UniProtKB/TrEMBL annotation, chain A:
InterPro entries: Spe-39, Vps16_C. One of its GO terms (cellular component) is late endosome. The lineage of its organism: Eukaryota, Metazoa, Chordata, Craniata, Vertebrata. Residues 43-59 have a biased composition (Basic and acidic residues). GO terms for biological process: intracellular protein transport; vacuolar transport. Pfam families: Vps16_C. The gene is VIPAS39. It is found in: Cytoplasmic vesicle; Early endosome; Late endosome. This is Spermatogenesis-defective protein 39 homolog.
TrEMBL record, chain B:
One of its GO terms (biological process) is vesicle-mediated transport. Its main location: membrane. This is Vacuolar protein sorting-associated protein 33B. It comes from Oncorhynchus tshawytscha (Chinook salmon). Belongs to the STXBP/unc-18/SEC1 family.
């Protein structure tokens, strides 16, 4: 194996050297011809698979590759002068212009003797330059000095669909053009623009990016871009101030509300955190002793904060920042969402009385009734997941409207009373007898079934 | 042509060659640096490197120590440091200059080399230059384009492709894809036909074609005849569906990395987790990987019974028979036993996880979305999923599926679901929503269907080429998935009232419990059947066009002999493909007597795809 690889490596080396001789302009090499060398070594190592089959025309046709987005023609764009019929905004017109003899004049004479080559290094056309860059050969961008030349080069890079080269050209343009000019030209070049934005994002040139968006009236992008930076701020007080500063950014109306929420949330979390930390360490409140906090509440989502507040600050008056009611109101939390979160927290604490109160409503006559914005089968599910005892569960199973669902839930969680009463109400003697067979003989539920079955006043349907 | 007997599918080419090529080039690069050196490897490159070279190989080439790249000053005794960097992300190795400068401050002058894989970018070199360390650091590239993960799967190991191209609009990987194709073409080609759909596919094709023209052509017997290129954004629905085929499910739950999975103690029923290679070498896995999960248990228990019988044979044996048994069969049986218990353990653990999260209800919602049935119920299911703060990525996945299948959300639903999502998972996901919108994964419906009307009216007036451009323009305003129309046109969603026998699948829909035929695979099937896009005009229009079908050579190629290579089809997914899709293609291959080779920029699934949309990795 090792021998083989050595041989392959040696062959690659000889190939590389060969190339160097051939073209002594190339002092720096983009690691030779990668694919070429690989296929070359394949030839060596796998001569067996080579066969001298018939040589046929293997070339594939060129296909039309449209740019990602149509360019809008810009009144400012100098390049449009170059593009002839550029008003329609297609790059084809650009390549057509190469057919123009006046431009072809400045294409280099490629058949010069090698010794004179160096003098012509800077005479490569945009097309040749891009090609050389793609192949990792020596190139030079310095000669592209006029705006027209620069833009021709950029357009050529875009036509070659090679992001690496597009970015390289953009880096050159960034260095050699004022940003106003560059921005202006990029407006009409969507593909190049996206490469530029991505490049700036990667190297972290936030400020320039903001300016770019601003110059293009992409205000929402600009706002989001700046908002994104809050992720880099570690200290919570600094982060809060940063978010406060974000409030003035031109977000879309919806997003502006969310960012406002973000600021308000962190502001409150800081207050709650400071307070609770102090209370917890002083050992004043039982709740913290019994259930020590596992993590700080800072930077947690709204719902987590609500859960926390339902857990540690239940029953506080609406006026305090940490009370569930206050959080609910401030962040416009829906009834359904509020109930789900509150239920989770109170059930976790096994505060069944609180759970009960969540659903209890009084009508004008003073009668109480249980209501819920979500189906009671869901409530049962949540309670069960929080290990609620059967006595609690059955109350809620009983509230499930759909009788079949009620019975199946009751069976799942062994709420005997519910099942027995339901069958009784349905006057279903048969089912009751079947169920008697399922419960333990002599147990209280067994006796209850016996009692009902022997009640002569009931009129069974079967 | 004899149609009495369907020929067996042809043999697959040997892709281990690709590994050897990559290894040889790495060795060559190491030998370029004589003397002892330390090798620093970027975390992302570890697993791929493992697949092609081992420590011994590296040590044989004077590598002293191996380190994982961490961005802090290098403590190393060697005076030469070779750094293996898995390409960009610039943000990751942005700190590299600090390392060098720290060295300088200490008066140390080490020689550094950064080897980029699979290629270097001008932007990286520019950064080195700007930081004033160009020269102190030399660079090279290791053209490690293709990693064979299995007999029929080759990966470019570029998970960043999806985000870079489809979200950021950066075409830096287009040429890489072209080069990868070129490599395959020069080793296993020449290809005779190339089909494709998608803008990136088109560009990758062009890049490949140019590279072919630049290089020399040798005549050789082709091993791969046809190629199909497809952009991931042609079909975003499929990768967002829950996977229920064994291999896909394992990937969804345990995450297969570079063909290797780490089974937790839960699975191995021991106190430590173990890493297992999952490929066709694993005989048990090979038989269940493409099966619907519901079939796997039955299969495994049958297998276990067979194994028991094989073991039981011992009881009646004499010494001589026993000797043969031990020397010939026992090892195999033990091996099988080990694999079997592993996969049974995995299945059990997956069952447990899935029952806990009410998998059935989740699947029911997904299927309703695909069918376009009871959408209001689906929305309230998703809402509750969000309200209860169940897995963030799952919630996002369901939202995206809703948007893709319904051509966007109604503005009031969009606003309300977004607000609830932010409340539950954090307001910074504003950024995620902006990304999802940009990519067209989660959008608001445009008021009225004015766009469609306008589009079709204008489309009728102008010729095809211009219409294509107009569609582009419209699509940038509102990327529409047209899922319903496509589904009807291509029969992607079978009638739900029919029973679907998962034991004997009748079509590719089996990979989604019979509920949906993956669009990507259906397109491939249709195009191969029709030998092009004829008759699919309406479909391609709904997919925003960019389809092509080209044949090598302009003349005389029609008369070529039908060889096995014509029945080997290389499918290249630009932006990733899922194990479920690979299973579907394997099924298609068996049905049609074809063999598919999947080349993908990376193996993906819903979680990977959506996680790449997150912006909170600051």
């Amino acid at each position: 194996m090792l021998k083989e690889s050595k041989r392959a490596v040696n062959s690659i080396r000889s190939l590389v050297e060969e190339e160097d001789e051939e073209d002594d302009v190339e002092k720096v090499s983009w690691s030779g011809e990668p694919v070429g060398s690989i296929s070359w070594s394949v030839k060596e190592t796998e001569s067996s698979i080579r066969s001298t089959g018939e040589v046929r025309d293997q070339s594939f046709p060129k296909i039309h590759t449209a740019p990602s987005l149509p360019k809008n023609s810009s009144g400012y764009s100098l390049s449009s002068l170059f593009k002839g019929k550029a008003k329609t905004g297609s790059f084809q017109s650009f390549s057509e212009s190469f057919g123009d003899p006046s431009i072809r004049n400045y294409a280099p004479e490629l058949r010069k003797p090698k010794s004179e080559y160096k003098d012509y290094v800077s005479d490569w056309t945009p097309e040749e330059t891009v090609k050389r860059m793609q192949q990792g050969k020596v190139y030079s961008l310095e000669k592209f000095r006029s705006l027209q030349d620069k833009l021709l080069l950029l357009d050529e890079a875009v036509n070659a669909h090679d992001g690496n080269v597009i970015t390289a050209v953009l880096i050159y343009l960034k260095k050699s053009l004022s940003k106003e000019i560059l921005f202006r030209e990029l407006i009409t070049r969507e593909i190049a623009l996206r490469h530029y934005i991505h490049y700036l994002k990667e190297i972290g040139e936030q400020k320039l990016l903001v300016e770019l968006f601003k110059s293009m009236d992409r205000t929402e992008d600009m706002a989001l871009m700046q908002y994104r930076d809050h992720l880099n701020v570690r200290d919570e007080n600094k982060k809060r101030d940063f978010l406060k500063n974000c409030l003035s950014f031109p977000f879309s109306p919806d997003d502006a509300t969310h960012v406002q929420d973000h600021y308000t949330l962190l502001e409150r979390q800081i207050i709650i955190e400071a307070n609770d930390k102090q209370v917890e360490s002083s050992g004043q409140a039982d709740i913290f002793k019994k259930y020590p906090r596992k993590a700080s509440i800072l930077n947690m989502p709204i719902i987590t904060t609500l859960y926390y507040s339902c857990f540690y600050h239940y029953g506080e008056s609406d006026g305090t920042f940490s009370s569930p009611a206050n959080i609910r109101k401030t962040f416009r939390i829906s009834d359904k969402q509020f109930l789900l979160t509150c239920l989770g927290a109170r059930a976790k604490l096994k505060a069944w009385f609180d759970v009960d109160a969540l659903f209890t409503t009084k009508n004008w006559l003073g009668y109480t009734k249980k209501r819920s914005p979500i189906g009671f089968h869901r409530i049962v599910d949540i309670l069960q997941k929080n290990n609620a005892p059967v006595q609690v569960l059955q109350d809620y199973v009983n509230l499930v409207e759909d009788v079949e669902q009620k019975i199946s839930l009751a069976q799942k969680y062994k709420c005997h009373d519910v099942i027995i009463n339901t069958y009784r109400d349905l006057k279903d003697r048969q089912q009751l007898i079947v169920y008697r067979g399922k419960v333990e003989r002599g147990s209280s539920e067994y006796r209850k079934i016996e009692e009902i079955l022997s009640n002569s006043q009931l009129r069974w349907k079967n | 042509m004899a149609h009495s007997v369907r020929r067996d599918a042809p043999e697959l080419p040997d892709f281990s060659l690709l590994k050897r090529l990559a290894r040889d080039q790495l060795i060559y690069l190491l030998e370029q640096l004589p003397g002892r050196k330390d090798l620093f490897i970027e975390a992302d490159l570890m697993s791929p490197l493992d697949r092609i070279a081992n420590v011994t190989t590296l040590k044989q080439h004077d590598v002293d120590k191996l380190y994982k790249v961490e961005h802090k000053p290098i403590v190393s005794t060697s005076d030469q440091t070779v750094r293996g960097c898995f390409l960009y992300p610039l943000t990751n190795w942005f700190l590299f200059p600090d390392v060098v400068n720290a060295d300088k401050a200490f008066g140390r002058f080490r020689r550094y080399k950064i080897i980029f894989s699979p290629q270097k970018f001008y932007a990286c070199e520019n950064l080195l230059e700007e930081q004033g360390i160009f020269g102190d650091v030399t660079t090279d590239e290791w053209s490690f384009y293709l990693l064979p993960l299995d007999d029929d799967i080759i990966s470019l190991e570029l998970p960043e492709f999806f985000r870079d191209y489809f979200l950021e609009g950066d075409q830096r990987w287009v040429r890489t894809a072209g080069s990868a194709l070129h490599l395959l073409h020069s080793v296993y080609g020449p290809f005779s036909k190339v089909y494709g759909i998608g803008r990136c596919s088109k560009m990758a094709y062009e890049s490949w074609r140019e590279q072919v023209e630049e290089g020399e052509q040798r005549a050789r017997q082709a091993e791969i005849g046809n190629v199909f290129l497809i952009d991931r954004d042609v079909d975003l629905v499929t990768p967002l569906c829950s996977q229920v085929v064994y291999e896909g499910l394992v990937d969804d739950i345990f995450r297969i990395k570079c063909g290797c999975v780490e089974f937790c103690p839960d699975v191995t029923s021991s106190d430590k987790s173990i890493k297992v290679m999952l490929n066709s070498q694993d005989k048990v896995f090979n038989e269940i990987r493409n099966e619907h999960f519901s079939q796997v248990f039955g299969f495994l228990s049958q297998k276990a019974r067979n194994l028991q019988t094989a073991y039981d044979k011992r009881s009646g044996m004499d010494i001589k028979q026993m000797k043969t048994f031990v020397s010939e069969e026992l090892k195999g049986l033990k091996q099988e036993h080990r694999l079997l218990s592993l996969h049974i353990g995995a299945s059990e653990s997956m069952m447990k996880k899935k029952t806990k999260q009410d998998f059935q209800e989740l699947l029911k919602t997904e299927h309703s979305l695909l069918e376009g049935f009871e959408i209001r119920e689906c929305i309230s299911y998703i809402e509750e999923h969000i309200n209860r703060q169940v897995s963030m990525v799952e919630s996002m996945r369901l939202l995206c599926l809703l948007s893709l299948t319904e051509n966007g959300l109604l503005p009031k639903d969009y606003r309300s679901l977004k607000a609830q999502f932010l409340q539950s998972y954090g307001i910074e996901h504003l950024l995620t929503f902006s990304n999802l919108k940009q990519l067209g994964l989660l959008v608001e419906q445009q008021p009225g269907e004015t766009l469609t009307v306008m589009e079709s009216r204008v489309g009728k007036l102008v010729n095809d080429k211009t219409a294509g451009k107009l569609t582009d323009a419209f699509s940038s305003l509102a990327k529409k998935s047209n899922f319903r129309a496509l589904g009807r046109r291509l029969n992607l969603v079978p009638k739900s009232d029919e029973e679907y026998d998962l034991r004997v699948p009748r079509d590719m829909a089996y990979i989604f419990s019979g509920a949906y035929i993956p669009l990507s695979c259906k397109l491939i099937e249709q195009v191969l059947e029709r030998d092009g896009w004829t008759g699919l005009e309406e479909v391609t229009r709904m997919l925003n066009g960019h389809e092509f079908a080209v044949t090598a050579g302009s003349n005389g190629s029609d008369a070529r002999v039908k060889t096995d290579s014509q029945r080997i089809i290389l499918v290249m997914f630009l932006g990733g493909c899922t194990f479920s899709e690979i299973s579907a293609l394997r099924f298609l291959g068996r049905e049609k007597g074809l063999k598919f080779i999947v080349v993908t920029t990376a193996i993906t699934n819903s979680a990977r795809l959506l996680e790449s949309m997150l912006d909170n990795h600051a």
